[in-house]
């Protein structure tokens, strides 16, 4: 198994693909890639129909998937403020690839049996597939897509992101074997001699103590530990130091422990969601999730240092496992230079902690990755898929 990652800022698709192909050939020592993952900034939008044909002319035997992004990641760089074309290529012996495209007309209904998902993805659960998923946020329900795939493939890791860069429907593009697509979702299922490890860095740290939901109605928190939810938040805020109070005024979130039995003192076990509003008269909190009675929640804050520390700790814990041959990084458009004040932060941190495995990806309108065994759409997150051979 060999991976390569390259980036080009040539203004034409044809010129960019030639530059990318030369870099890929050099990194793969002439081995033919089986998989190409292409990510382009919106500067190439007028040339989007040329992307897949140009890649196919240069690498005729490879499966293609990709999308447009507000910024792209590749070859150790993160380009957010100018045109760039990122290409990640993989030579994958003994690995079966099943590319697929799902749109609102072909996506199975929420109550469909697993066989319906097998038909649209072209892969059986017994194959133990690993999924790379790229979706257009304007034309498909990403959370419904993930729930269906989790139902049909509960043991399969899923990683990816929502295309970004456009502010309205039918502007962004997805790339697949058949060319540029205006909507839906594209994916690749990998099975055989491959393992995809996942790291989801939500970039938050807890404040206050864990609290149990004692009354809730859909996304409304009524009581935490038997007292009004807003009162519990106010008590948490009052106990913070003045610097943390200033941070919480701008960047306060809620974390939900996704399952019973998890380590509630481990920040990585919480699913981070937004606080949407409060009702001072009734003591209610509205949150961007559907908490259930008995669930453990904890308030969280986020800043650049916390985000960096969170990712560093996760990568450092993963590093001793070794064997990484390549990785994909799906990072929120709210990270990057806007968060850290410098380009390439998360890519550099991966290189420092895990090693020199090629990394490619893009900046997303929502990041896909698992927390507590369930796949979610995230925000302000960096989701990594790290690849290694299953055997050897």
Please describe what this structure looks like:
- By secondary structure, the protein is of the alpha+beta class.
- It is built from nine helices and 25 strands.
- The chain has helices at 13-27, 48-58, 114-121, 142-152, 229-238, 242-250, 304-318, 336-340, 345-353, and strands spanning 2-8, 35-41, 63-69, 72-74, 77-79, 85-91, 95-102, 130-135, 158-162, 174-176, 179-181, 185-192, 195-201, 205-217, 220-224, 227-228, 252-256, 271-279, 284-287, 296-301, 326-332, 359-364, 367-371, 374-378, 382-388.
- The strands form four sheets. Strands 1-6-2-3-10-11 form a six-stranded mixed beta sheet, covered by helices on one side. Strands 5-4-22-21-25-13 form a six-stranded mixed beta sheet, with helices on one face.
- Helix 3 crosses helix 4 (142-152) and helix 7 packs parallel to helix 9.
- The protein starts with a strand and ends with a strand.
- The model has no long low-confidence stretch (mean pLDDT 94).
